[in-house]
Amino acid sequence: MLSFVLAIFGLALLIVLHEGGHFLVARLCGMRVERFSVGFGPPLASFKRGGTIFQVAPIPLGGFVQITGLNPSEEFDKSDPMVYPNRPRWMRLLTVVAGPAANYLTAIVMVFVVLMAYGTTPKTQQIDDAVANRPAAAAGLKAGDVLVEANGQKVDADHLISEVIKASQGAPVNIKVLRSGQPMEFSVKPDLNKGVYQVGIQIGPHGDRTPASIGLAAKEAVVYPYYASVDILEGLYNMIRGKVSAELSGPVGITQQIAKAASKGMVYFLSMLAMLSVYLGLFNLLPLPALDGGRAVFLGLESILRKRVDPRIEAAVHTAGFVLLMGVLLVVSWKDIRNLIWKV
């Protein structure tokens, strides 16, 4: 139960920090912010401070900051210098990207805290789980086996065994491990699972974490969002190409994953939140209607055309994108709930 409470708190924190980025920069840029909401729908609880209503709403599919004039279809005083359209373009762009930027900054801080408090993850890896009725388990590999080589190549956190397995294209992979300190060797024939050759093992670090200096922790934390984003984009590209099947999770599924990480310990919990924070920031930067990236696209068009795009067209595009996005989230959330019920 505690892990689920932590998961809900963690997910809500990421949303609050994202919207907080928009809110803070909008206020610094002299914009009027009417509402700050965690969740969608009628408010369950709210209070007003500094001209802004802060609220918690019942539909946990995200949140929003209502900046006067940001919605192209809303009515506002066109002579008011504090409304979004009347602020300089660079201020509007900063406000739009401030949410994703806050998520990236959050990931940096969380990774830095993990490295300073717990140290760096050992490079050596072990099998955390060998899935029943899959090739690895059938060949005799077990949880706790320490990975040494695969097809004559060293495997660790920098040389992933998954890459060796993919490169095999289904041919048997010779895997060397240490079991209770004794060397053992197994031949495993990968199977094709969701478009990717796999053997059915879950990998985790083996050994104690190594204390990190402030300099190393800062360096690793700063570059983390970049490398995490590259991995996410590569996965998205492979999904679009059909090389891997699409596996989407809504708030319910994401909460389950956070809870699972929290049950393993604080280091896993914070690491999961850091990764999800990058996901949230990167997703919102995609140039899609209703997302921050979509609004940035319209600002780019405004800069090129030297005039604002017809507000009615922009409003229609964002509304269509929002409806589609909510539809996808509801479908994915229903799938997550159904899977949760079936598991119970």
Describe this structure in words.
- With 344 residues, the chain is α+β, with helices and mostly antiparallel strands.
- The chain folds into 2 domains: 2-116 and 274-343, no CATH class; 125-205, Pdz3 Domain, CATH 2.30.42.10.
- It has 9 helices and 12 strands.
- It has helices at 2-28, 89-118, 135-139, 161-168, 214-240, 251-264, 266-285, 292-305, 311-343; strands at 33-40, 45-49, 52-56, 59-67, 125-130, 146-150, 153-154, 173-179, 182-188, 191-193, 196-198, 201-205.
- The strands form 4 sheets. A 4-stranded mixed sheet has the order 2-3-1-4, covered by helices on one side. The chain has a 4-stranded antiparallel sheet with strand order 7-6-8-9.
- Strand 8 (173-179) and strand 9 (182-188) form a beta hairpin.
- Helix 1 crosses helix 7 (266-285).
- The radius of gyration is 23 Å and the shape is elongated.
- The chain starts with a helix and ends with a helix.
Short description:
This protein is of the alpha+beta class and 344 residues long.
Helix and strand composition category: alpha+beta
How many helices in DSSP terms? 9
Counting DSSP E segments of at least 2 residues, the number of strands comes to: 12
Helix content: 40-55%
Instruction: Report Rg.
Output: 23 Å
* Gross morphology: elongated
Strand content: 15-25%
Order of helices and strands: HEEEEHEHEEHEEEEEHHHHH
Low-confidence stretches: none
| Biggest sheet architecture | 4 strands, mixed
Gap between N and C termini: 15 Å
User: Total domains, how many?
Assistant: 2
**Major sheet: order of its strands?**
2-3-1-4
